[in-house]
């Protein structure tokens, strides 16, 4: 069966479509794509989620929005752990490029912690990781810290946590 | 996020990236992509719509079981319940970069 191709720009509007399309065309093609084979069934795997929504637990430092307001071409490149029992009352959501009120009402629209626990209870997924993860997606002119510092740190944290599979979700 | 996907995959953990802007794949090269036409900020579905959230999560996780080559893009067949012109996802205040570009005459 032929898949219907998703329209990536259905919700962007013409202006953002133009900016993003031009950025994609300008970028050099990636040299190679990393690949780690999946070696165990989903029903036996420990799954972690990673969102770009700028979510932080109350008690942890929130993502730095003042810094971005002062320097619009900069975005906070740090990362946070989100406990698997968190709900919308336990977190702050800081992201200046989306309407964060939906996530503030129901964290599962962007970080489906409850839905993952349900799939674990049904036996579809082996286990949920003890913590999940958030970054803040807007990186402005320089994504090197996110790529070369936060990315490897998150990967190392996932390995320590025994994560088998990671589902990453930009907002 | 694609850059982080590559780092996690390199560290030995398979990744799927659920992505609205999946065409970034040509520039970034993510290991496995689940493409979806949902509005920004709500990739899994509407507030309190547990059934859709669960279905999107299940479909995204299924890509771990079906993708066989690096760079695979799976197009998920979910239809948002509102037309784009009726769908509010923008921040209440324009993002700083947008305001910055307007102030410098960079928005045509």
Keywords:
heterodimer; A: 171 residues; alpha/beta; two-stranded antiparallel sheet; 16% strand; globular; B: 108 residues; 4 helices
Describe the structure in your own words.
The complex is a heterodimer of chains A (171) and B (108). Chain A is of the alpha/beta class. Chain A has helices at 14-26, 65-70, 101-105, 113-121, 144-160; strands at residues 46-51, 55-57, 80-83, 91-93, 127-128, 131-134, 165-169. The longest helix of chain A has 17 residues, at 144-160. The relative contact order of chain A is 0.22. The mean pLDDT of chain A is 96. Chain B is of the alpha/beta class and 108 residues long. In chain B, 35% of the residues lie in helices and 12% in strands. Chain B has helices at residues 2-10, 25-28, 50-66, 96-103, and strands at 15-19, 32-35, 72-75. Chain B has a three-stranded parallel sheet with strand order 1-2-3, sandwiched between helices. The mean pLDDT of chain B is 95. Chains A and B meet through helix 1, helix 3, helix 4, helix 5 and strand 7 of A and helix 1, strand 1, helix 2, helix 3 and helix 4 of B. Strand 7 (165-169) of chain A pairs parallel with strand 1 (15-19) of chain B, so a sheet runs across the interface.
